[in-house]
Amino acid sequence: MTNFPNLIDGEWTMGTQSVPNVNPSDTNDVIGQAASATTEEVEQAIDAAAAAQVGWSKSTPQQRFDILDAIGTEILARKEELGDLLAREEGKTLPEGIGEVARAGQIFKFFAGEALRIPGERLESVRPGVEVDIRREALGVIGIITPWNFPIAIPAWKSAPALCYGNAVVMKAAEAVPGSAWALADIIHRSGLPKGVFNLVNGKGSKIGPVMIDHPKVAGISFTGSVQTGQQVAQGCAKNLKKVQLEMGGKNPMVVLDDADLDIAVGACVNGAFFSTGQRCTASSRLIVTEGIYDAFVAAMSKTVSALTVGDARKAGTQIGPVIDQRQLEKDLEYVQIAQQEGATLVCGGEKIEGSGHFMSPALFVDTANHMRINQEEVFGPVATIIKAKDYEEALKLANDTEFGLSAGICTTSLKYATDFKANAKAGMVMVNLPTAGVDYHVPFGGTKGSSYGSREQGRYAAEFYSTVKTSYMQA
User: Among 244, 291, 330, 460, which is most buried by a count of CB atoms within 10 Å?
Assistant: First the structure.
């Protein structure tokens, strides 16, 4: 077994408390022990970050480029090894795990480049002889709270821009997946970054989160997780006048029109709804299908979903891995029951698969209405529903009838409908003939309504959260 310690002020420490890191594909496989930070240790990490941030904010663009580029290079060189660790502790299939690690490396490479081109402006004042200079400066200490479903990509897309713009970081990794966060922290620690600039604290969010939110030396919180917890984070940050960035839930629609290419539509829907075991905030859990293609789509989807291979995430040929833990499995199975009680028809799947892991067969429902709980509440598992719509106009109305607005998709060969959907879907990201899940690392990520709050993540838009603007005037 491996220990996964905290990183505080450049020192690794297991502290006095730890929790096991268990493989969801095989609960008999204990990967290691993860440190569980105390309140005092979190405060030490914040103090160290505040002290180190002053110097780091004055580092040159070349220094930041070299360090971030080195981090990205090592991540990419070790993508198979780290992808195996990710699949083992989180339950993504091995190809998905390797792909996520590669994305983390690409993110660091991208922000290495951004460190060389942090924008500013020089304007003429309305007053003669006065110059105006506008520049971006570091925010300060950033508290980062990450979820378990993308255990290296999300820590990367938060910490890389934070470091790029001269901030220091205190990162709280998800308790269920400490190994990937520890591996990332270890690479960052050995990159030449000054001690204290990046700190890792493992443990319960209910214990660590409030310390970050209430600490006066933390300037901003970037959070990804559940809606309920995100609302608590927002309230705490508002009370303490901290900058906040939230990425929360989704109940993403995929519209399939009569003119869609059936193979493309089924492929996009299976990928979006069930890959990564449906444990993505961008998963397409509501499949809204118009009448003309409905029967053919249901038949093709049920055949494809029934044939998906569920098994150990690291085994060759596995298409769907386990859900993260027993509690999530019970929640997923409960929603299967709720859907049936509401009158939905279970076409296939929805059953617990016996064994030493947290497995269930992918569930597909028909005869559902958009007002049902199964179509309004985020399940976060391998569960999808099909909703029949009369035409495009009704499909668009159903797609927008949700409190969430992260991602939305449409399958169609009509330029007219694709263009209209891009303009009128109430979501931060729109996909045409593509899965609702799966985004590039160099463009903005985020949603509307109950899905997101604050500035966008990723790409050049990350500067809006991780930096602040200073305007200077000078009499020549």
Answer: 244
**Which of 74, 247, 378, 457 is flagged as catalytic?**
247
Phi-psi region of 247 (alpha: psi -120 to 50; beta: other; left: phi over 0): beta
Is residue 281 part of the annotated active site? The answer reads yes
Do 279 and 242 share a structural domain?
Answer: no
Whether 246 contacts 233, CB under 8 Å: yes
Q: What is the mean pLDDT of the chain?
A: 97
Helix axis angle for 61-77 and 153-164, nearest 10°, is: 160
Averaged pLDDT, 315-319: 98
Contacts of 70 (CB under 8 A, 6+ apart): 191, 192
Position 1 scores a pLDDT of: 66
Domain span at 470: 2-248+451-475
SS3 call for 161:
helix
Give the mean pLDDT of 45-63: 98
Q: Is 247 a catalytic residue?
A: yes
* 437 found inside a domain: no
* List of residues 6+ apart from 274 with CB closer than 8 A: 305, 308, 320, 362, 382, 384
Q: Which residues of 311-350 are buried (b: 16+ CB within 10 A; e: fewer)?
A: bbbbeeebbbbbbbbeebbeebbebbeebeebebebbbbb
Catalytic pick among 281, 378, 411, 457: 281
Query: How far apart (Å, rounded) are the C-alpha atoms in residues 46 and 248?
Result: 25
Residue 443 is assigned to a structural domain of this protein = no
For the cut 70, the answer to whether the pLDDT of residue 354 exceeds it is yes
State the distance between the two ends of the chain, measured CA to CA, in whole angstroms. 65
Q: What are phi and psi of 133, to 5 degrees?
A: -120, 130
Instruction: Please say whether the beta carbons of 182 and 171 come within 8 A.
Output: no
